[in-house]
Structures are given as C-alpha cells and as structure tokens.
Design goal:
The complex is a heterotrimer of chains A (about 350), B (about 300) and C (about 260).
Chain A lengths: L12 H4 L6 H21 L2 H27 L7 H18 L5 H20 L7 H21 L12 E2 L4 E2 L2 E2 L3 H23 L2 H18 L4 H28 L1 E2 L6 H14 L3 H30 L5 H22 L3 H15 L5
Antiparallel strand pairs in A: 1-4, 2-3
Helix pairs in contact in A: 2-7, 3-7, 3-9, 3-10, 3-11, 4-5, 4-6, 4-9, 5-9, 7-9, 8-9, 10-11, 10-13, 11-13
Chain B lengths: L2 H32 L6 H17 L4 H24 L7 H23 L16 H7 L5 H23 L1 H11 L1 H6 L4 H27 L8 H12 L4 H26 L7 H12 L14
Helix pairs in contact in B: 1-6, 1-7, 1-9, 1-10, 1-11, 2-3, 2-4, 2-9, 3-9, 6-7, 6-9, 7-9, 10-11, 10-12, 11-12
Chain C lengths: L9 E12 L2 E12 L3 E5 L6 H9 L6 E6 L2 E3 L4 H7 L1 E4 L11 H7 L9 H6 L3 H19 L15 H14 L4 E5 L7 H18 L2 E5 L3 H7 L2 E6 L2 E6 L1 H6 L1 H8 L4
Parallel strand pairs in C: 3-8, 3-9, 6-7, 7-8
Antiparallel strand pairs in C: 1-2, 1-4, 4-5, 9-10
The chains are: A mainly alpha (about 350), B mainly alpha (about 300), C alpha/beta (about 260).
Chain lengths: ~350, ~300, ~260
C-alpha cells in the first residue's frame, strides 16, 4: 500500500534509467544519506563508529571492487587483499614522501598503483579462464605480499615491516576523531559507489557482463576483449586499493603486511557471495553481514556461557565462527546463490503487492 | 657449482614434489569424477592427520587408528556428497568451488574444535635421516623418509591409475566426469559414484596427511598444502593423474632449486610465490596444462 | 517482395576461398558475390560448409587461401573485431546472446561500436555519457518497436522462449546498423507461426533498412520465397549459383540433396 509504483510514469529514457526509478526508493535513500551523514556522527557511540561502522564501509568498498571484477566481469579473483595492501602501503609512501600532495590525491595515486598491479596480474586473463585465473590471482596475492615484506623502501625500512599511518589532514582539518574518520570514509565510499553504479549501467558495465556471459560472442559484435578485461581488473583493483588505504588510515592505524593475507581475500569473496548480485546492494549487505557476524557470535556465546555458567574458551569461539561461516556459505550457495541482495529484491517485490497476497 | 650439492637439492626437490603430487592427486580424483574443484582437499588432509594423531595419542594402536581414521574420512566424504554436492548438482563450477571453500572453513573449525589446536608430532617409523650407504658411497645425503614417501606415492598412483582405466567403476567415474546428464542417461548411479570418489579422495588425503604430518608435524599450516597443490594442477592439468605426478615433480624440483640458488639473491622466502608464478608463466604458454584438455569455444 | 527495392552494385565478393581444419576441407575455392540490398541465400546439405562460409565472412575463421572484398577493401583474412567495425553483423545458429542481461541491455551491446565515451565520463554520467546513452537508447527502442518486443525489454534473456531469443538476437545484430547482415539459420527450431513472423521481420529489415542479407536456411520454401539469389554448396564446393528458380531446376543441386553419389 505504501510501496506502490502506480501513477509514477516515466516520460523519458532518462527517467527510466535512473538509479532509483521508484519514488519511494528515492525518498528512502535520501533519508538514509541524511541519517548517515548527519545523525550518526552526532549520536553515534565512538566505539561503534571506529570498530564497526567504519570498517563496514571500508569492506563494502573492497567488496564493491571485487564485485565489479568477479560479479560483473566474471573474472574470479583471490587477490583482493594484495590490491588492498598495495593501496595501503603506497598511500603511506605518498603521504610520507610527498606530503604536499594532500590526502585525496595521495589516495587516488595509491589506488592507481593498485590498478597498475591489477592490470599486470590481469594480463593472464586474456589466455586463461575460470579457476586457472583464480589460481593465477593467488600468485599475485603471494607475490605482492612477499614484495612488501622484503622491499625496504615500501615500509620506509622499518625493521618489522610495520608502518604507522600518519594523521591525515583534509583541507587543514586533522582527522583524528572517530567521527571525522567515519565521515571521511563515508564520503569516499558514497562517491565511489555512485561512480560504480554509473559505470555498471552504461556501456562499460554491459561490456563486462557480455565478456562474462559469452566472451567469444562479445568479441564478434565488436567488444574489445583485452581492453575490457584489463579495464575490469584496473577499476576493481583501484577500488580495492582505495579501500586498503582507508583500511590503514581510518581503521588500523598500525599496518603490517600480515593484515593482508589470503584470509582477507576470502573474507571479501564471502561478502560478495553472501551479499549477492547488484554491485552496490550486494556489497553493502555482504560487508554488513560479515562485519557484524563475529560480534553477534561473540554476544551469543557470552550470553550462553553466562546463562549456563560455563566458560567458553576464546579458541572455541573462533572455531565456531569458522564452522558457522563455512556452513553459511554453503547454505547461501544452495538456497539463494544470488545472495542477500536477491532476498532483498524478493522482499521489495512482496512489499509492492502488500497488503495483497499476489 | 658443486654437482653433488646440486644433485642433492634436485632430489630433495623431486621428492618434495612427489608429496605435492599426493595432495594434487586428491584434487584430480574429485575433479575427474564430479567436475568439482575441491578446495577443501587441504583441510581434509589436515583433518585426517589430526584425527589419526589424536587417536594414537589417546592410546589407540596405530593400525587400528589408521582404520578408524579411514572410516571417518569415508564417512566425511559421503556426508559431503549428500549435504553439499547433491543440492548443487547442476550449478556452475564456480558455485561448487565456492561451496568447497565454505567446506574448508567448516573442516578447519571442526578439526580444531574436536581435537584442539596444538601441533602434534607424527611418527611413521621411518626416520628422516640420510640413507647411510648413499652418503658413504657418493657423499650424497638423501633422506630415507623422502624415498619412502616417494615409494608410497608411486604405489598409490599406480593403484589409482589401474583403478580408473581397468575397472568398471573406474569407467563409470570417467563417464561421470565427462557429462553428468549423459552418465545418468545410461543408468550410472551418480550419487553412489560421487560418494565413492569422495571417499577415495578422503583416503588419499589420509595418506598425504600421514606423510606430510610425519615430515612437518601435524599443525594448522598443513591446510595450506592445498594451496601448494594448485600450481601442480595448473601445470599438470586438472584431470590427469600422470599430470599431477609430473606437475608435482616439476614444481617440487624447480621450487627447491630456485630457493637454494636464486633465493639468497633476493632476500629469501621466495617459496611462498615461486611455484605460482612458475605455474602462471607455464599457463601462458599452454593454457590447459601439460595434459589438460583443450577447451574449444564454439559459438 | 517489395518492388521498390533496388538491387545495387556488388558489395561483397568472395574469391577462391579455401578453408581447412586439419584434414577436413570445409571450403574449397568458393567464389560468389553479393549485391547491395539483395537477399542472398546459401543452401546445401548438412556439412556442406555453409556455417564455415559465414564464419569466414565474419572473421571468426581465417581461410588458408582466397580473398574477400568488402566495401572496396580486399582482405586475405580479417579479425572478427574488424568485421564488426566495417559494418558486418550476424546471428548465430545456437543463439549467442548474453543470457545474464536483459533484452534491452543485449540490444544496447550491439551499439557498443557507436559509443565513444570513455569509462571516466561514464562514471560521472552527467553530460556527454548520459546524452550518448539516451541517443543510443532511442535508436534501440526503434528496433524494439520494429521487432515488437516491447513487452519483454526488461526480461533477462535467459528466461525467454527460443523463438523470442532468436528475435532478440536479430535485434542485437540490427542495433549495429550493419551494411551486411549474416543470418545463420534464423528459422531453425521454429514452428510455422514463428517462422512466418521471422520471415516478415527479415523481409522488413531488407525493405525498411535496405540491409544486404546473406542467410543460411534449410527450409526450401522460405529460401525460394524470400531470396533474390541463391548459392548452393556441397562438400565445401559451390555447385550452383543463380535465382531460386534456376537453382531449383539444377540437376546437380537435386542430386546433392537426394544424396546421389558423385
């Protein structure tokens, strides 16, 4: 009854192709943005902001990057963490060695470095596909991590390979408080998410999907394979690189190469599996789920241990986490391979009919 | 260049390669029969080794423990087939692959939940010492254990190869690997076949687990073996048993050689990525691996 | 057939093209030409090499010998990408649509060569990218109207019945505004009504857009009805070339189809 499209006619192609064609959606998004930008920083608990919401945004961005490559262009990648690492460490170097650049150009350059690495390791995709490509991205993951650990210049010759992110200033205003970091991250993520959505609904997005669905046919109708695949790698790695830079500067603070292992790549992959199709929605839902989940599990087990009076060892909790994660992946793949985003779509479709059954 | 030293390193590498092949073999089996790339193979190796070691440590006789673990692995295989594979029968390969990633996590968590997470030592009775007469005669030191492992792996491969080529079940397995629907159409009981395959792969995982565990200790790092087996598969092709062997040898040898001769020049630690980069370069020349099947895109 | 259509000069000329796959000789010294605005059919028994011929014209296969002249340019072999850029579009026997995308998106991919904006402009969306998108959308909507598929424009292609998928594929080929359209068995697997619809569309394409058509078809009735000239292939060789009537009476053609040993 509330969620009806009746009466909303589109009188131009522009209106038909906008991101939120239904007016109720537009209102909802506007409200969400207002809450996110204004209400949360004012009202939000510092701890939640820095430990939960900011990393959620960062991972959503990384998931977005992976979604572009894997979900849209169909190139399975297990090297996400490596690209994030490049972004993080290169951002550090830019800020360290060229402080006159400013935060945003430094991050952009760091992203471009990640994009370059992405293109190099994406070159094999022109010859190999499917798992073979996934394994090739593993090569990227291990190699990049090794380089970062061994190449002194990258870590400014720090003995243990650990770097400390400097305080960044935006237009002269230092970003030290959780709220400030949160707003910065939020802005970056929103801008990049919008850009991603625009890209995916235009020719680039279609070219990606064409290459994913049937690349031989795509090249026959004139879509340039090499350019398209490499562009997918470049854009995806750029997003992951920026996410990595944010990860270092607005969340971690002290960064070591070990923060960017294969494990992280898998996490992001799980986000897009659980989150599902749709670059924006899927990435955000998946990131939210994976970020929230350990907290929920912790709460649940401590609740249980209080109720039953037994002490649940920490190791057991992390093992339980693994088991439940794994089972959830399998569950989602069986029940709803298109992930939470599809479930959301189904809910919306039901909402459109509500209160009628069909 | 000291030729004897080179020979030692080479042999060491080859023998390590044989061990890689063992793990790769598990992959190939499952892929050949069900088209599923079982990322959980490494976790299976870990689980098998951990179960065996824990049972022995709790006082069970080694041989009994072996049998019990084998049974456990078979059960695991059957359960996996039922719970994970059957619901996903016609899904694209990527989906099945990701399901096995999920399975990996479940197995890792389960293993440590049930048996704890401290590393264990595993004794198979063959010490990891150089063969005495070789050292005396040619001043070359090659571990007894490595030879033993190579022999075991060789025997296993021979048995499996025979199984696939000569028996009726082997033929059915190959049919299933080729085309599920066609196999169903000629009356091959798909589910039974898959259960068999996963069980056999479980057995292979057990052997690999025992050998690797004896060599490096049974600890969580064992799960990363799966990852090491991947370059082997890339080179050997995903569907070929001889490919897994050859690939393993190539990877093992080149990795060891690179580590010893090339590593010190760039700061060491290159074994974390060398195998992969090698496999990658190899793939660029031969996208289907040494023995893999050429994939022809028809429009 | 519309008499208002004028058949023009030779626009495509195939000269002594030979194609072999290992030991299999798919085409042997085949030569024929195609005139502008005409409907040219390629027929022949199974395995005669018809699809291979089309694949050569399209740049998917590269002939070992022979030349192709299209639009005043001569090629020994060309890339499928070049073919697309030169205005050759085609449909496929087994439908090569992008199953994950909607009908509208599939048709829009057909226009990819006309889109000039780079990805940065697209990311921004305002201005040139949006305008370009709208223009191309308008062009595609004309084709949607033409092929009467308005009601399924937002449906993912994978969900459509076979006949409609073939129509969408035709639409995608048309979206590229080709000068030469290659149709590989456009009526295959269709019932009578679907065939009639498809025939109508194919003829309309020829009338309305003036596109030169080369089509492979097994249904003799269709071929005789709609084509201007016919080429007959058998075992990779051309055995007849002429108007439908001429070809129908040709003894060699009859023998080839009836399987008389030769």
């Amino acid at each position: 009854m509330l969620y009806r499209e009746a009466g909303q006619f589109k009188s131009s192609y522009g209106e038909d192709q906008q991101i939120f064609p239904i007016r109720q959606d537009r209102i909802a998004i506007a409200l969400l943005l207002v809450v996110a930008f204004v209400v949360v920083p004012l009202v939000g608990n510092q701890y939640w902001l820095s430990a939960l919401i900011t990393p959620f945004l960062i991972f959503a961005l990384a998931a977005l990057g992976l979604n572009i490559l894997t979900g849209y262009a169909g190139q399975l990648s297990l090297g996400t963490a490596a690209f994030m690492a490049v972004g993080a460490f290169m951002a550090y170097n830019f800020v360290l060695r060229m402080p006159w650049l400013g935060v945003i150009p430094s991050f952009v350059l760091a992203g471009l470095c990640a994009a370059l690495v992405g293109v190099v390791f994406g070159l094999p995709s022109l010859r190999i596909k499917g798992f073979y490509l996934a394994v090739a991205t593993l090569a990227c993951q291990f190699f990049v991590l090794w380089v970062i650990q061994r190449w002194g210049w990258i870590t400014n010759n720090s003995a243990s390979g650990v770097i400390t992110a400097q305080t960044i200033t935006l237009f002269g205003y230092p970003l030290t408080s959780p709220a400030a970091k949160y707003l910065f991250t939020l802005s970056v993520v929103v801008v990049l998410a919008l850009a991603a959505k625009n890209l995916m609904r235009s020719e680039t997005g279609r070219a990606f999907m064409a290459v994913r669905d049937m690349d031989v046919a795509a090249s026959v109708i004139g879509i340039p394979m090499m350019k398209t695949k490499l562009l997918a790698f470049a854009i995806s790695s750029f997003y992951c690189g920026v996410a990595g830079a944010l990860y270092a500067y607005t969340y971690l603070g002290t960064v070591e190469p070990e923060a960017f292992t294969l494990d992280l790549s898998f996490r992001v992959l799980f986000m897009i599996i659980i989150g599902g199709v749709g670059p924006i929605l899927g990435s955000f839902l998946g990131a939210a789920f994976i970020t929230l989940f350990p907290i929920l599990l912790n709460l649940a087990t401590s609740g249980v241990s209080h109720a039953l009076g037994i002490e649940v060892p920490h190791a057991m909790v992390s093992n339980l986490e693994l088991i439940v994660f794994g089972s959830l992946i399998i569950f989602f793949l069986i029940v709803e391979p298109s992930g939470l985003a599809r479930l959301w779509q189904i809910t919306k479709e039901k909402l459109r009919l509500w209160p009628f059954p069909h | 260049m000291d030729i004897v030293f080179f020979f030692e390193v080479l042999t060491g590498g080859l023998l390590a390669g044989v061990m890689y092949s063992l793990v790769a073999l598990g992959f190939v089996l499952i892929y050949k029969a069900s088209g599923v790339f079982n990322f959980a193979q490494g976790a299976m190796v870990f689980f098998a080794a951990l179960t065996f070691v824990s049972l022995v440590e709790r006082g069970m006789n080694s041989w009994v423990a072996l049998v019990v673990t084998l049974v456990v692995m078979i059960v695991l295989g059957v359960v996996t087939e039922r719970v994970v594979l059957r619901p996903l029968v016609n899904q694209p390969q990527i989906t099945l692959f990701m399901a096995t990633i999920g399975l990996t996590f479940v197995l890792e968590g389960l293993s440590q939940l049930v048996w704890g997470s401290q590393p264990h030592n595993l004794e198979v009775g063959i010490p990891d010492v150089p063969i005495v007469w070789l050292t005396e005669k040619w001043n070359v030191s090659i571990s007894q254990f490595d030879i033993f492992a190579a022999l075991v792996a060789g025997a296993l491969v021979a048995v499996l190869a025979l199984f696939f080529q000569k028996t009726r079940i082997g033929r059915a397995l190959r049919a299933v690997a080729d085309d599920h629907q066609a196999a169903l159409a000629v009356g091959i009981p798909l589910q039974h076949i898959w259960a068999i395959v996963w069980a056999v792969a479980g057995g292979v995982a057990l052997v690999a687990g025992l050998l690797w565990g004896a060599r490096n200790g049974v600890q969580f790092a064992l799960t990363f073996l799966a990852l090491k087996a991947l370059p082997v598969l890339l080179i050997g092709g995903f569907e070929s048993i001889p490919g897994a062997i050859l690939g393993g040898l190539i990877i093992g040898a080149s990795e060891k050689l690179a580590e010893v001769y090339f590593g010190p020049m760039v700061g060491g630690g290159i074994e974390s990525w060398f195998a992969y980069v090698m496999a990658l370069l190899f793939l660029l020349v031969r996208p289907e691996g040494l023995f893999g099947e050429k994939h022809i895109d028809r429009v | 057939m519309s008499g208002a259509r004028r058949i023009g000069e030779v626009v495509l000329s195939v000269q002594d093209v030979s194609l072999a796959f290992g030991g299999v000789r798919a085409l042997q010294e085949v030569s024929f030409d195609v005139r502008e605005h005409e409907v040219r059919a390629i027929i022949g028994p199974n395995g005669a090499g018809k699809s291979s011929m089309l694949n050569v014209l399209n740049g998917v296969y590269h002939p070992q010998k022979g030349k192709i002249r299209f639009k005043e340019k001569e090629f020994a072999e060309m890339d499928s990408h070049q073919a697309a850029a030169m205005g050759i579009a085609r449909t496929f026997q087994n439908i090569a649509l992008f199953k994950g995308m909607t009908v509208l998106d599939n048709l829009m991919t057909g226009r990819n060569l006309k889109m000039r904006c780079n990805f940065l402009q697209q990311a921004l969306w305002l201005g040139p990218a949006k305008r370009e998108e709208m223009e191309n959308r308008r062009a595609v909507e004309e084709i949607i109207d033409f092929l009467e598929i308005q009601h399924i424009r937002k449906t993912p292609v994978g969900r459509l019945p076979y006949g409609l998928q073939k129509r969408v594929e035709l639409g995608r080929a048309l979206a590229a505004e080709p000068r030469l359209l290659l149709l590989d068995e456009p009526m295959a697997g269709m019932n009578l009504e679907e065939k009639q619809d498809m025939c109508r569309f194919v003829l309309d394409v020829n009338d309305h857009y003036g596109t030169t058509l080369v089509l492979i078809e097994h249904d003799m009735g269709v071929v005789m009805d709609i084509s201007d000239r016919v080429v007959v292939l058998d075992y990779g060789r051309k055995i007849a070339d002429g108007t439908p009537d001429e070809v129908r009476g040709n003894q060699k053609v009859i023998d080839a189809y009836l399987g008389v040993a030769h």
